[in-house]
Amino acid sequence: MGRPNTLVLREMKTTPPQVSSPNLLADRVYETLRGHIAQGHWAPGTQLRIREVAALVGTSVMPVREAFRRLEQAGLILTEPYRGASVRELSIDELEYVYDVRIMLEPDAARRGALLADDAAVETMRQHWRLLEKAAADGDIAGAVAQDELLLSALFSAGNNPVLTGLIQGMWDTCRPYKNLWVRDAVGHGLSRWSYLADLVAAVETRDGDSAFRILEHVCRTSRSTVRGILDPLSA
């Protein structure tokens, strides 16, 4: 996939974290760096040098070291002897493994949520669907990914199984670079790629758990197929 990119500081403007507690500062730095990776500001393979990142976020190196440790635990970066840290590369094998787990978890969470959702949960889903439509129309990839996840989180949370919802949201961190590829492709094809969300909201409105299950299972499988097709030329 070519040589890794190096971190370019001028590409982003970051507001220095304004907190005093070392633990809160480390949390804020972690969330900032996680956001840059999740939103695609740093491409896979980008090298992350501690002092450069500390200058970027306006802190000392210590909270950045702690953030790097947590990012590696979350599967977002890799650290190697003599090479330091870099944003994790994408691979066909990981894509398959991640989506295997999503297919096991998300359709079941959708069915549970559809059966138990109240009117407030349905309205929250509608609101995120409208915001996703706007983000997609504006070509806002990060915004579209965020609204997609917020909509699904509202559904999954309605199922009243926080362990299941937490597992899925944790998987999204690992999966998000692949989801970004899908969203870039979907933005290029208009809102038709997101039509399943309208069907999903309709299923939740009628408390049709089986339809919600089938919709999410189909979406996970077709998304994996789309991303595999995008990655194949890069992995040749």
From TrEMBL:
GO molecular function ontology, one term from the record:
DNA-binding transcription factor activity
Name one matching Pfam family: FCD
Keyword DNA-binding found: yes
SUPFAM superfamilies attached to this UniProt entry: GntR ligand-binding domain-like, Winged helix' DNA-binding domain
Ranges of residues in domain HTH gntR-type: 23-90
Q: Which InterPro entries match?
A: GntR_C, TF_FadR/GntR_C, Tscrpt_reg_HTH_GntR, WH-like_DNA-bd_sf, WH_DNA-bd_sf
Domain of life of the organism encoding this protein: Bacteria
Protein name, entry field? Transcriptional regulator, GntR family
Q: Which organism is it from?
A: Rhodococcus wratislaviensis
